[in-house]
Amino acid sequence: MKTHPDALGSQDRTDEFVAFSSYYEEAKDLLFKRDHATTEKAAIAKANSRLQFFQKIERLETLDMPYAFHRDEHRSEIRSLRREAEELFHAWNPDKGDMYKDAERQHQRIWSGKPSGPYLKHALALNIRPVLHNVIAFHLTGRAVYKRQARQNIKAIMSRLEEEGYTSFRAYLSLLIHDMENGPALFD
After folding, report:
1. With the C-alpha atoms ordered 23, 29, 31, 34, is the resulting torsion angle positive or negative?
2. Cα separation of 129 and 84, whole Å?
3. pTM of whole model > 0.85?
4. Residue 121 pairs with which residues in a beta bridge?
5. Cα dihedral sign for 95, 86, 168, 62?
6. What sign does the CA torsion over 118, 120, 123, 124 have?
7. For 91-111, how does the pLDDT look when each residue is reduced to its tens digit (9 = 90+)?
8. Through-space distance between the first and last CA atoms of the chain, rounded to whole angstroms
9. Do the beta carbons of residue 50 and residue 185 sit within 8 Å?
């Protein structure tokens, strides 16, 4: 303001004002680029976390099925994949806290369930597995058919999860289903 022609009421320091204005614009551009690059890096990291998360749970799905062959041989890899998936989920959804950890615990209980009741009601795991598979396949392939298939029986599954008290897993599954609206992680 000390060099601005309007503030001085004269044109005596116009050259200085033009130079200072140029420096100011240059500094502003530099700060904008730096801030934008930081924001862009954070967005890329979040997008990469999303894709890597689905890659990890796809590998987990392969190794950690209730009737998987040689499941015990992969115990350490399964534990490692669970830890990595939890970290990636948290990086992708930092505001969701311990949702993945709680959901994973409930998922393990669901896997251990057996058919029960007078009509041998199907074990819940048999209903959930195709939904999870389709969500994962949608994110890793980008094919819309998996998105449609994941939503086919979701209302009944969500009701059953609520009935049986698996609220964390229900919230987690709901998040995964709703996230498909953001497009496949593969295209982030």
Report:
1. negative
2. 21
3. no
4. 116
5. positive
6. negative
7. 999 998 789 999 999 998 888
8. 46
9. yes
